[in-house]
C-alpha cells in the first residue's frame, strides 16, 4: 500500500500541449515530490522514464557510459528519429567521436574570441532597438529576438547576410512537431525535403571554403578539420542543423522570455534599473526560469539503477530540464523570478558534462548586451497580449510576443 501511495499513476509529461498552454508546473511538482524517476508506460512516443530532480538529471548527464546520446539508439529527444532518416551529429554521439567533432567548432565561441564579437553585437542591438516603433504595438519576438539571433548566426557561418532569414526557417523546420496544426512542415518527408535543400545550400559554401585557405568561421572550420571534412550526407545535414538550432533557439527564446519575466515581475525590472551590475544575474535567471530546451533524452546502454528505480538496457531516459530548474530542494524559491540570487548560474538549461551547450557564453553575451542597451535607453514596455507559444515538448519556444514601448 505504501508503495502504491508513494508513486503516482503513469504521468505523461511528453504531451506538447502542456508547454504550448503553459500548464506543466503541477505535474512536474507532483513527480519531484512523489516519484522523481517516473516510468510512463504509454505515450505518443512510447514508454519512457522521466528524470525530474536536479541532482538525478546531473547524474545522468555525467554518466555517458550508462546513458547514451547515440543517434543509432534513438538520439536526444523523447521522439525517436525516423528509421532510415536519422541525422547524426556530435550532439547525438558519445565520446570519443563526439569529442573530436565538438572540438572542431569550439574555438569560435571560446572566451578569447567572444571579446571580438562584443562591439558588433552591441552595434546591431542598438540599431534594432532604435528602429522599434514608439507607442505602437510590434512583435518583440520577430523584431528583436529573431532578428538579432539570425544576424549572429550569419556571422558565425560567414553566411550571405541577404539570405539570413533562411537560417531561422531551417531552425524552425528542424525542431517542428509535425503534428501541430500550424507546423511549418507537416510530415517527416516534408521536413527531410526542406533540410536537404539546406544541405545543398551549405554544400556550395562548404566546397568553396574547402578549396580556399582556412578562415575563422564555422563552415571553414568544419571543412578543414580531419574530424568533419568527410561527413556523409545525413551527418552533414545533422551537423549543420545542430549548429543552426543550437545558435538560434536558446538565445532567441530567452530574449523574449526575459521581457515577459521582467514585465510580470516589475519589481525585478526596477531592481536591475537601479543596479545594472545585476544584468549578468538577470541573464542567468532568465535562462533558468524559462529553460528554452525542455528536455534531453538518453538511452540506457546497460541495466542501471537511478534513485532507487531499475532502468533496463534500451529504455528511454528523459531528463526534464524544465523540472530540474524548478527543484526547490536545490534552488530556493525556484518558482520565482529573482535576479539577485546568490548562485544565479546554478541551473541545468545548458545541460552538463560533455554535452554542455558549446555556445553558452555567446548566448549569455548576446542577452547581456541586449539588456545593457535597453537600460541605457531607459526603455519601458507594455505587453499587449499573451505570447504565442510553440507546440513542442523539446523547445520552449515563443513564436510571437506583442509589445509596446511606452516612453
Automatic annotation (TrEMBL):
<dbReference type="InterPro" id="IPR036396">
    <property type="entry name" value="Cyt_P450_sf"/>
</dbReference>
<feature type="region of interest" description="Disordered">
    <location>
        <begin position="78"/>
        <end position="97"/>
    </location>
</feature>
<keyword id="KW-0349">Heme</keyword>
<dbReference type="Pfam" id="PF00067">
    <property type="entry name" value="p450"/>
</dbReference>
<dbReference type="InterPro" id="IPR001128">
    <property type="entry name" value="Cyt_P450"/>
</dbReference>
<protein>
    <submittedName>
        <fullName>Cytochrome P450</fullName>
    </submittedName>
</protein>
<keyword id="KW-0560">Oxidoreductase</keyword>
<dbReference type="InterPro" id="IPR017972">
    <property type="entry name" value="Cyt_P450_CS"/>
</dbReference>
<dbReference type="InterPro" id="IPR002397">
    <property type="entry name" value="Cyt_P450_B"/>
</dbReference>
<keyword id="KW-0479">Metal-binding</keyword>
<comment type="similarity">
    <text>Belongs to the cytochrome P450 family.</text>
</comment>
<keyword id="KW-0408">Iron</keyword>
<keyword id="KW-0503">Monooxygenase</keyword>
